[in-house]
Design a protein that fits this description.
Length: 192
Amino acid sequence: MPKHSNASPAETFDLANIRFIEVTPATRGSFETLFEQQGAPKYCWCMAWRHSGREHIQNDEKKRQMMALIDAGTPVGILAEIDGKTIGWCSVAPRETYRRLSRWQDDSETGVWSIACFYVPRALRGGGLASALLDAAIDHAFAKGARIIEAYPVAEASPSYRFMGFRDMFASRGFHEAGMAGSRRHVMRLAH
C-alpha cells in the first residue's frame, strides 16, 4: 500500500516489522489496551469459548475471568505488535482450556491446541494481518508442544462466526477438513 501524507501509521504497517508475543502476566497490559480500544471486542474479552461457569455474565466479569486465566499462567493466545503498538490478537491455546468446540470432539485426545478467534481492527483488515497471525499461532502452538492444531473457520460468505477466520486461509496452510461444528463452522486440523 503506498504511503500518503494523510495516511495513519496503522494503515501503512509492514508485515515484515510485526512482532508476535504470547499473552502472559508480563504482557497482559498490551492485551488489555488492545481490547479496550474503540471497536474492539470488549463485550467478549475472548471468553465466549472458554469455561466461564455461567452462560450470561457482564463484560467486566468476562475481563476479570480472562485476567485471572492470564495471571494463573493459562495459555490464552498471542498478540501482534508493530513499533510497540498492539495491533491484533489470535486466541490459540490447549483445547482443554476451552469449553466444547464441536459436538464430535474427543476429550481423551491429548496434545490438541485450538485456534478459536482473531481480532484485527477494522482499519487493518484486508492487509494480511490475520494470515500473519495464523502463521504465528501455528508456530506458537507447535513450539509449545501441540501435536495437532484444530480450528473452526467459516466460508468467506458466512454471515456469522467470521471472527474464527476463513476456511481458505486455513486450507492454504495444510489444514484438512475433519467435520462440521454446527451449520457454519468447519472443523479443520493440522498435524505436526
